[in-house]
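### Sample
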Amino acid sequence: MSEDTVVVWDESLLAYDLGDHPLDPVRVELTIALARELGVLQRPGVRLIRPWPADDALLTRVHDQRYLDAVRMAPREPFFSGFGLGTSDNPVFDRMHESSALIAGATVAAAEAVWWGQARRAVNVAGGLHHAMSDRAAGFCIYNDPAVAIARLLDLGAERIAYVDVDVHHGDGVQQIFWDDPRVLTVSLHETPLALFPGTGFPDETGGPGAEGSAVNIALPPAVSDAGWQRAFHAIVPSVLRAFRPQVLFTQCGADAHRSDPLADLHLSVDGQRATYLALRALADELCEGRWVATGGGGYALVEVVPRAWTHLLATATGAPLDPATLTPPAWRALAAARRPGSDVPLRMTDGIDPGYEPWQPTGEPNPVDRAIAATRKAVFPLLGLDPHDPRD
């Protein structure tokens, strides 16, 4: 297996542009610019490859052909509605099919590079559109690129793929698409569906008939910060991954669990997000011989958070993690200020937070985070042959 890291990138990925909308492609542009300015993309063993659009044969592994036809047609119909399109969340935009298919193709290219041994790790920061369903758009997502790439890996012979979603919103589309498939373990940490879109992701959602235990949901209460989030992550994710024994780790790394994100109410820091990426890399190294495919996802603090978080992701995937105290380069700060006038452009790659945590124990006075941990462990651990009460599991 190659020790290289593939980063799938081309400026054409910025064409996934919903207009005056929270999901602004500037977050991706500024991520790549920051990673370049810090030398992350110029490291030895890093290969940038250009994406190609997923064709209908790939897309229909996940999406209905009628839905693809509607995505193609919608920009030509001024009053088009249906299939989740033409809403404030999912407005119709020019060349919608082409730009969406390109993002799906980019994530497929990342997955193929890892599966074929051309790279140990691969990243598509423009991807992670995890809400799209087989027959409709949802949550700013037209085509579900993680699901398309996972389906491609299954077609190539993968028998066990673990998908871990750390976006603040539940990874509902990926879970639903593989609900009945025991070859795919979907794990999602998110703000409780009682408070946040899409309203799914409760602990008792554990997989369909014949795939019981293949869906794991950790629904966290609002205002959870790094310590609680890390406590929940480490109380559940390593155990279920070790029980499942994946061949590939696929992660959706939405940056919207940050305390500054305007669309949700978890209180993570960039430092906590960096710690999560390091933990995911370690799990890929332990369980999958390093095979790790990572995408971006949500993130609406376009200057303040997303570029720093995903540059930490890229650094973690391509070699040594960046020192949190690293200064953001002046040229990048000037670009960010020009792209988003009035934004609070960060000076350093840190929020100055220690992301340490106390490991979970099944004793003591339960707090809201521990109740969330206990609910998930009780629901899914027995299905995976694990003891929900044993902290060693």
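Strands lie at 5-8, 46-49, 121-124, 161-165, 184-191, 215-220, 248-252, 292-295. This sample (Acetoin utilization protein AcuC) is used throughout the tutorial notebook.
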